[in-house]
Write a structure and sequence with these properties.
Layout: H1 8-17, H2 23-52, H3 56-64
């Protein structure tokens, strides 16, 4: 197993977590971090759409596709 040092952002989040006293505060921080990453993901998706000239309809079609790996009878 490779050990990895924490980067400055990770250390900052850890130091801020010292002030979390309740499960509710922990959940609030969790929700804030999820919102942060959702915004980043949405921005990346929009950038991908523009670069590849992909419509929202195409993305919706991809999201609703059900591709399954066929397994043979063994």
């Amino acid at each position: 197993m490779v050990t990895k040092q924490l980067n400055p952002a990770q250390l900052n989040v850890l130091s801020l977590m010292a002030y979390i006293d309740t499960e509710q505060e922990q959940q609030e921080l969790h929700d804030i971090l999820l919102q942060f990453y959702r915004k980043k993901t949405d921005a990346l998706l929009l950038q991908f759409q523009k670069e590849k000239n992909i419509s929202q309809e195409t993305l919706d079609d991809w999201a609703n596709q059900h591709e399954r790996t066929p397994y043979g009878n063994k």
